[in-house]
Design goal:
Strand content: 15-25%
Bound molecules: fe (ii) ion
CATH class: Alpha Beta
CATH superfamily: Ribonuclease Z/Hydroxyacylglutathione hydrolase-like
CATH topology: Metallo-beta-lactamase, Chain A
Shape: globular
Number of domains: 1
Order of helices and strands: EEEEHEHEHHEEEEEHEHH
Helix content: 25-40%
Structural class: alpha/beta
Number of strands: 12
Largest sheet: 7 strands, mixed
Number of helices: 7
Length: 265
């Protein structure tokens, strides 16, 4: 006898806004039912697709009834299942994420890390800072929030004071790390911008939702500033000349201390 199929883990957070929990290591997927269009924020991993379609079916939707997918950034655990929707849904991402997705930039996307192979796809529309997606019942503003990686966006819904944060900040003020194409200075600037918003709840890509966004964003900002100071202390303690010589030599593909032919620098 076959095992009964497990029900998908779904929470309705606000009227028409659902959180679909992915199988690990995938990100959460958020569904927003607009007046006429259905939007997904992220898709989880490629291997999460069966779980995602089951969740959508429990909400009365076929994959072809998803009209728009907004990707919070270019990491595999947020975009892997997107290729399954590409024929029928419009896909949107920040230009710095769209570019990497289009070129299949494995160094940044980590698409082969802990996931099954997914088909290549591209972002149909490049979402810039302050782009607005008007769904009739909800109006979502794109905020470019680089730091975790360069193509990160958060999505702000001002009438309900909701923020979808992707991996930029998790509940409890947890920072999800600085990965390829990210940096701490941009992270600080992004958290400062988010801290200026009126937010009642934020919905991250992983873990629980935040019901204390003000405190959580303040903690994230404080921790990021501490991290910056720790970086400065680290570089202050290093023998920077020899460190940088090794670093730049590695980038140039040279042996340390041996200039390339004709390189007078
Ligand atoms: Fe990420």
């Amino acid at each position: 006898m076959s095992e009964p199929q497990k029900k998908a883990k779904i929470a309705e957070l606000k009227p028409g806004i659902f959180q679909l929990i992915s199988e690990r290591p995938g990100s959460h997927v958020y569904l927003i039912r607009g007046l006429n269009k259905n939007v997904l924020i992220d898709t989880g991993t490629a291997s999460n697709y069966p779980n995602l379609t089951q969740g959508l079916a429990e909400l009365g939707l076929k994959p072809s009834q998803i009209h728009l997918i907004i990707l919070t950034h270019e990491h595999f655990d947020h975009i892997g299942a997107c290729s399954h929707f590409f024929e029928t849904a419009v896909v949107g991402a920040h230009p710095l994420a769209a570019n990497k997705i289009s070129l299949q930039d494995e160094f940044v996307m980590m698409a082969k890390y802990l996931d099954v192979t997914s088909q290549p796809f591209r972002a149909d529309i490049w979402l810039h800072d302050n782009s607005v997606i008007d769904l009739g019942n909800y109006r979502i503003r794109v905020m470019h929030t680089p730091g975790h990686c360069s193509g990160c966006i958060c999505l702000y819904e001002s009438s309900m004071k909701l923020l979808f944060t992707g991996d930029t900040v998790l509940a409890g003020g947890v920072l999800s790390g600085i990965l390829g194409s990210g940096n701490i200075s941009d992270y600080i600037n992004s958290l400062q911008r988010l801290s200026a918003l009126q937010v009642d709840e934020f919905y991250p890509g992983h873990g629980r939702i935040s019901l204390n966004p003000r405190q959580d964003l303040a903690k994230a900002l404080e921790d990021s500033l501490t991290h910056m100071e720790e970086c400065k202390a680290l570089f202050g303690a290093l023998d920077t000349k020899s460190t940088y010589e090794h670093y730049f030599a590695a980038i140039r593909g040279q042996h340390p201390g041996r200039p390339a032919k004709g390189d007078k620098s």
